């Protein structure tokens, strides 16, 4: 029997994309390390399609040792060369360096008593923004919130985090609910907003 659920049009029919849409996209994430991983992955997406990242995500998690900031912050040139030779990941020296630098910044924030999750969620007032877009209708590629977050991330030294990348990150981690109102996930994700 065919699946009759109405989904956001962007996920198409690729099983990996559909699973990502149905299980992850828009679900509020509050874990600081998981948020950092997703920010890194969105940075790796720059110039690429998200499906490319989804197809490489498990290889990237393995190559980057579970996206543990403590481990990645210690990476040196040998680690960078190892990663550049790993076909399971996006092999961009600039993006790899960005991940390493981001891990160091994440640790600095943590060690100074600043919670990465609370800091990021402060840009949306601590709770998901609930949008009511029609499916197939245009969504913004950036918002004042994503512009403010991108500016603040850059000020701290993060890279590959412009307003468009940051808005995609905000959608992915549930800081905004951009599921179309007709999508079966819209109400489910809205209900998850209460922590």
- Round the Cα radius of gyration to an integer and report it: 17 Å
- Determine the structural class based on helices, strands and strand pairing: mainly alpha
* CATH top level class name: Mainly Alpha
Oligomeric organization of the protein chains: single chain
> For the largest beta sheet, what order do the strands appear in spatially?
1-2
- How does CATH name the architecture? Orthogonal Bundle
Q: What's the story with the biggest beta sheet?
A: 2 strands, parallel
Helix content: 40-55%
Number of helices: 10
Q: How many discrete structural domains?
A: 1
End-to-end separation: 36 Å
How many strand units?
Answer: 2
As a percent range, the share of strand residues is under 5%
Q: Are there runs of 5+ residues with pLDDT below 50, and where?
A: none
Overview of this protein structure:
By secondary structure, the chain is mostly helical. The protein has one domain: Orthogonal Bundle (Endonuclease III, domain 1), CATH 1.10.340.30. The chain has ten helices and two strands. A two-stranded parallel sheet has the order 1-2. Helix 2 packs across helix 3 and helix 2 packs across helix 9. The N and C termini lie far apart (about 35 Å).
Write a brief structural summary.
By secondary structure, this protein is mostly helical. It has a single domain (13-191), classed as Hypothetical protein, domain 2 (Endonuclease III, domain 1).
Topology, pairings included?
Layout: H1 15-23, H2 32-45, H3 50-63, H4 69-73, H5 77-84, H6 93-111, H7 116-121, E1 129-130, H8 144-156, H9 163-172, E2 176-177, H10 184-191
Parallel strand pairs: 1-2
Helix pairs in contact: 2-3, 2-6, 2-9, 8-9
């Amino acid at each position: 029997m065919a699946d009759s659920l109405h989904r956001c049009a962007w996920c198409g029919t690729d099983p990996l994309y559909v699973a990502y849409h149905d299980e992850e996209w828009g679900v509020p994430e509050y874990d600081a390390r998981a948020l950092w991983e997703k920010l890194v992955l969105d940075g790796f997406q720059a110039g690429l399609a998200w499906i490319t990242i989804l197809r490489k995500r498990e290889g990237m998690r393995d190559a980057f040792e579970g996206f543990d900031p403590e481990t990645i912050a210690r990476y040196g040139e040998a680690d960078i060369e190892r990663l550049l030779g790993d076909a399971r990941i996006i092999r961009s020296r600039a993006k790899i360096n960005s991940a390493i630098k981001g891990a160091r910044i994440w640790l600095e924030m943590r060690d100074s008593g600043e919670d990465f999750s609370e800091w990021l969620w402060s840009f949306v007032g601590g709770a998901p923004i609930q949008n009511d877009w029609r499916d197939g209708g245009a969504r913004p590629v950036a918002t004042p919130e994503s512009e403010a977050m991108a500016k603040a991330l850059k000020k701290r030294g993060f890279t590959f985090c412009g307003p468009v990348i940051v808005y995609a990150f905000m959608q992915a981690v549930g800081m905004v609910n951009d599921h179309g109102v007709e999508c079966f996930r819209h109400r489910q994700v809205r209900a998850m907003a209460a922590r």
